[in-house]
Each structure stands twice: as structure tokens, then as C-alpha cells.
Write a structure and sequence with these properties.
This protein has about 500 residues and is mostly helical. It contains 21 helices and 7 strands. It has helices at about 35-40, 45-65, 80-95, 105-110, 130-135, 145-155, 195-205, 225-240, 260-265, 270-285, 290-315, 335, 340-355, 360-375, 375-385, 395-405, 420-425, 450-460, 460-465, 470-480, 480-499; strands at about 5, 25-30, 65-70, 95-100, 120, 160, 165. It has a 5-stranded parallel sheet with strand order 3-2-1-4-5, with helices on both faces. A two-stranded antiparallel ribbon has the order 6-7. It is globular, with a radius of gyration of 23 Å. Bound molecules: flavin-adenine dinucleotide, ligand DLZ and iron/sulfur cluster (SF4).
């Protein structure tokens, strides 16, 4: 009697708990299913990445002598969902045990309860949901910074005894530079599709032509070997400048000094621990400065673990809140990129071309606009879940619902990340190519982020005014004369009605 070991599309890690203690005679089940490909209309590159990486992973397991029962999407017998495919596999193999690692999404966890499987912990993360829940217990505020410090202590990363390396936990104040004109980020390594990827691309083009995004050029790594090469390239060519230019945006250069590893990390080709250790080594060997290495490690050891903890602590109710009562439908330009607001056109264009945009584009351009315009959280979240190659609900939802939209009323962020055009102008070169002017506050040339920012504060005054971190903008608003406020509201209404 065989043990059936189920491996999902974001569990492509040799050391994952479901594959540990594998015995000869056990069968690994992997399933490409239509339901997962279509519950949102994922970017074509995301579909290609996941299916191709799954097929490569299955081949690697077979090469190591494991028996893999692999259900392809184009198999005529494929019934299209995880649960019905598990049932078919049970009929084929009559397993004595079914083993699976806990999934990354609430939705899938609900399905998994019907599989008759032993569900093991996903210990690829630094913190389990239980560890996070224990940290959160009794705290009024769940601030990432304090969780991160505990994670530094627990992991020993960038620690000297009980003290943080360099005497400080966080070097963020050094990390807010815009990109000088004479600084050119290195050309990024992309990977040519091999025969397996080419076959998947043809299948994706044929089955999902209406999904978002450009399929080509496809340059993602689909194996651990290539993902490690991409990590190497980042550590040597980009990490030294990662901190300085982490928040910068530049037209025509989406990757800048970012790592572009989130898709590999999230599907399991590389693990958070090995990435953080490589980064720490770059610092200890004098290859990268501490502000860059600490800033980078904080993203993975801090933010990534924190959002996962929050997701499992708060789901499923978390997804249902709408603290700012935002109900406006998502404008069409989120799909087409066709808007005169150049920052949005560029960030959405990058997203279509690459299934990628970096954090500040997501938070301070597309996210900031959605916040200021009062777009419906559900619609915005569906968008973020499908447009990025790295998007899985456990990481997408807290970032969108909590950080970008403040729809959780401040569980995650201590204040809304609302900003006017001045921020985008400071951190990018988008405004110099825009028909609007970030220095103009009202009138036809005014940057819409400027009047929308004040309109957002006026509309949400009752909900936000008592937040101590909003005291300064509300003091400024209080000094504004009634006529100007009325003009801001009028111009915002005209603009928003046209969306
Ligand atoms: P880098 O800037 O090089 O950072 C290194 C790594 O740190 C990333 O690969 C990622 O694993 C981790 N990281 C950084 N910031 C965060 C964060 N806020 N939360 C979790 N991990 C973080 N990230 C996803 O992986 N999937 C998502 O679906 C996703 N959706 C997002 C939606 C919104 C609205 C926002 C504001 C952020 C979202 N993020 C998401 C977080 C972040 O933007 C991406 O992780 C990052 O842009 C990935 O690019 P990179 O690998 O070049 O990251
Ligand atoms: C995102 C995705 C897609 C598009 N397709 C599959 C698939 O066919 N098979 C699979 O095992 N996983 C897929 N995934 C990932 C899942 O939708 C889901 O996000 C993870 O299993 C996390 O629970
Ligand atoms: Fe964006 Fe305003 Fe700058 Fe145009 S002027 S790019 S709309 S911030």
C-alpha cells in the first residue's frame, strides 16, 4: 500500500515536510487544475511560471527515483479541481496514507479538509502561524518592527549576542534616495524558455488568451538551479545599492536594484533562510553595506513573515472588512494602462509586460491611487492577486487590504499610506513625462493625486482625524479656507465621476 504525498504548485521545495521520510513505493501527486488557473484570471506569465516550474520539479523528483503521478492540464481525463483530482488519485492508488503540507491560502485549506490527508506544518517559514499568534496575543497593536526584532533574535541573523549588528535594528532612514540621473542599474538576468516552458507557453496562449498580461518575452527562472543563479546575480550586482534606491522609481526600468526573487521564494524554488544567509554573508565579507543588507533581510525576515502571520491570525474575517467604506469600481485603465497619469500608465504597463512591479509602484502608485479614489477593496484585491507572478493570497491580501487600502482600519498599518503627487515626483522621473504637473494643486494642469489627497482626508475625516499619526495633515486641513476645500471636493468629484 502506497503513501500518497501531495505537492501543490507553490510547494516546489525538495525539503518540504510532505516529502520528508519518503519511502520507496510512495507516490507523489502533482495536479495542474483549471480551477486554480481561473479562480482569478492570472497573468499569463504567472501561469507559465507555475506550470513550467511544476513540470520541472516533477522531472527532478523522477530523476531522483521518486514515483510521480503528474496530472497535466491538457490531460482529457483531468476533472479540473484539486478535490476531484485527489479523489481520482485515491481510486488509482488506494493509498494507506495521504500526506500534504498545509497550503498558503485559506480557500485551499478549506478544500484540503475533505482530502482525508494528514496536514503537516509548512516549516519553510521562520515563524509558524502559532508562533505569530503567540507573539500577537495581548498586544494592542501588531507592529511589524517589534515582530521583526523578535525574528532577528530568534534567527540570529545580523545579531551580535543580544544586540543588533551595527547597534541599530533598522537603517531605513538611509534608504529613501531617488535615483540620480548618472546612476544606471545593471542589466538583469533573464532566462530563455526551454522546451518544457515553450510547451507550457503554447498551452497558456491557447487555453487562456483572455487572461491579463503579455506572455512574451518570458524570462523567469523555472528551476531551483536558475533561481539560485538569479539570486547570485542580485547579491553580487544589486544588493550593495538595494538600500539606497529601494524606494526609487524610474521610467523604463522596473527592476532597478530589487531582487526579483519573490516568485521563486513564493513557489518554493528557494527558501527564505538561504536568501537571508546569503545576504548576511555579503555583509560579513564586506561586499555590501549594512543599510542595504539589513533593509533586504527586513523585507524577508520581517515583512514577509509578518504578513503571513497576520493572514492566518485574521482570516477569514480579515478579507471582509471595508473600514473606509470604499465602493468605487476598479477603473478600466488598471487593465489597459491607458491613462494620462504617467505614473499609473508606467506602473501598470510594467505590470503587464513583466508580471512584476516593485513595492513602491504597488504601494505608492497603484495602491495609493486606489486608496485616494476610494476603490472597492474586493476589486482591487482581485487585481493584485492576478497581475503579479508572485501573488498568493497569504501575502497579497494583507499588503493590499491592510497596507495599501487601510481596509482593515489600522490592524497592519498605523496610518493610511496616502500621498500627494509630491511624493511620486520626489521618488521618480514619471512626472517630467506627464501631462499633469505635481506642483499644481488645482485646475486642469493639477496632478490628480494632489486634490484627491485632500479630498480623501476630507471624506474620511470622521474616521481618521483621531489617529495621532494623521494629526499633521489634519492640522493643515483645518487651516484651509472653506472655498478651497469646496473647490477640492468639486474637482475631485468631476475627476472621479469620469473614471
Ligand atoms: P525586493 O524589494 O527585492 O524585496 C525582497 C523580498 O522581500 C521580496 O522578494 C519579498 O519576498 C519580500 N518582501 C518585500 N516586501 C514585502 C512585503 N510587503 N510583504 C511580503 N514580502 C515582502 N509580495 C508578494 O510576494 N506577493 C504578493 O502578492 C504581493 N502583493 C503586494 C501587493 C501590494 C499592494 C503591495 C504594496 C505589496 C505586495 N507585495 C507582494 C510585497 C512586495 O511588493 C513584493 O514582495 C516585492 O515587490 C517583490 O519584488 P522583489 O522580489 O524584487 O522584492
Ligand atoms: C496559482 C496556481 C495555479 C495557477 N495553478 C495551480 C495548479 O494547477 N496546481 C497547483 O497545485 N497549484 C496551482 N496554483 C497554486 C494554488 O492556486 C494555490 O495558490 C496554492 O496551492 C496555495 O494554497
Ligand atoms: Fe503621476 Fe501626478 Fe506625477 Fe503625473 S504629475 S506622473 S499623475 S504624480
Amino acid at each position: 500500500m502506497t503513501t500518497l504525498r501531495i505537492v501543490l504548485g507553490d510547494q516546489l521545495t525538495r525539503g518540504i515536510s510532505s516529502l520528508r521520510d519518503h519511502q520507496p513505493g510512495d507516490t507523489v501527486l502533482m495536479m495542474e487544475v483549471a480551477e486554480e488557473a481561473t479562480y482569478v484570471r492570472h497573468h499569463k506569465q504567472k501561469l507559465t511560471l507555475i506550470f513550467s516550474a511544476m513540470r520541472h520539479f516533477a522531472d527532478e523528483l523522477r530523476a531522483d527515483g521518486l514515483a510521480v503521478d503528474y496530472i497535466r492540464l491538457d490531460d482529457p481525463a483531468n476533472t479540473g479541481s484539486f478535490t476531484s483530482e485527489v479523489q481520482r488519485a485515491i481510486a488509482r492508488h488506494s493509498p494507506s496514507r495521504i500526506i500534504v503540507t498545509e497550503p498558503g491560502e485559506w480557500r485551499v485549506q478549506e478544500m484540503m479538509k475533505n482530502w482525508g490527508a494528514e496536514i503537516l506544518t509548512d516549516d519553510r517559514f521562520f515563524a509558524s502561524p502559532a508562533t505569530f499568534a503567540a507573539w500577537a496575543r495581548g498586544r494592542k497593536q501588531l507592529r511589524m518592527e517589534f515582530f521583526y526584532r523578535d525574528m532577528r533574535r530568534a534567527s540570529g541573523l545580523l545579531m551580535e549576542g543580544d544586540e543588533p549588528t551595527g547597534g541599530q535594528w533598522n537603517f531605513d532612514h538611509d534608504n529613501r534616495k531617488s535615483l540620480p540621473k548618472d546612476v544606471t542599474p545593471p542589466k538583469r538576468q533573464r532566462f530563455e524558455p526551454d522546451a518544457i516552458t515553450a510547451e507550457v507557453m503554447a498551452m497558456v496562449q491557447q487555453r487562456f488568451p483572455g487572461h491579463f498580461g503579455d506572455l512574451e518575452p518570458f524570462g523567469w527562472a523555472v528551476t531551483r538551479e536558475d533561481a539560485l543563479e538569479a539570486l547570485d546575480h542580485f547579491i553580487t550586482a544589486c544588493l550593495p545599492n538595494f538600500g539606497d534606491y529601494q524606494d526609487a522609481m524610474k521610467q523604463g526600468n522596473v527592476f532597478l536594484y530589487h531582487s526579483i526573487i519573490s516568485p521563486y521564494l513564493n513557489i518554493g524554488l528557494i527558501t527564505p533562510r538561504e536568501i537571508c544567509e546569503r545576504a548576511e554573508q555579503a555583509w560579513s565579507q564586506g561586499h555590501a553595506p549594512l543599510n542595504a543588507v539589513e533593509g533586504f533581510i527586513r523585507q524577508i525576515l520581517g515583512w514577509r513573515e509578518y504578513v503571513r502571520g497576520l493572514y492566518w491570525l485574521k482570516m477569514p474575517d480579515y478579507a471582509e472588512t471595508n473600514a473606509l467604506e470604499a465602493h468605487r469600481p476598479l477603473p478600466d485603465f488598471y487593465w489597459t494602462g491607458k491613462t494620462e497619469m504617467n505614473c499609473l500608465a508606467q506602473s501598470i504597463g510594467d505590470t503587464k509586460r513583466h508580471a512584476y512591479a516593485h513595492h513602491i509602484q504597488r504601494l505608492m502608485v497603484t495602491g495609493n491611487f486606489a486608496l485616494l479614489a476610494g476603490l472597492s477593496p474586493k476589486e482591487v484585491e482581485a487585481w493584485y492577486l492576478l497581475v503579479y507572478a508572485d501573488a498568493f493570497e497569504w501575502v497579497e491580501l494583507p499588503n493590499t487590504h491592510g497596507m495599501a487600502l487601510f481596509a482593515d482600519g489600522g490592524v497592519m498599518a498605523s496610518k493610511p499610506y496616502a500621498a500627494s503627487g509630491a511624493y511620486i515626483d520626489r521618488m521618480s522621473d514619471y512626472c517630467s513625462h506627464c501631462r499633469y504637473d505635481p506642483a499644481v494643486k488645482l485646475g486642469p494642469k493639477a496632478c490628480p493625486f494632489n486634490y484627491l489627497y485632500w479630498d480623501f482626508l476630507i471624506r474620511n475625516e470622521a474616521k481618521l482625524k483621531s489617529n495621532p499619526r494623521m494629526a499633521m495633515p489634519y492640522r493643515t486641513l483645518a487651516k484651509m479656507d472653506a472655498e478651497r476645500k469646496a473647490e477640492i471636493a468639486r474637482q475631485s468629484k468631476v475627476f472621479l465621476d469620469k473614471l
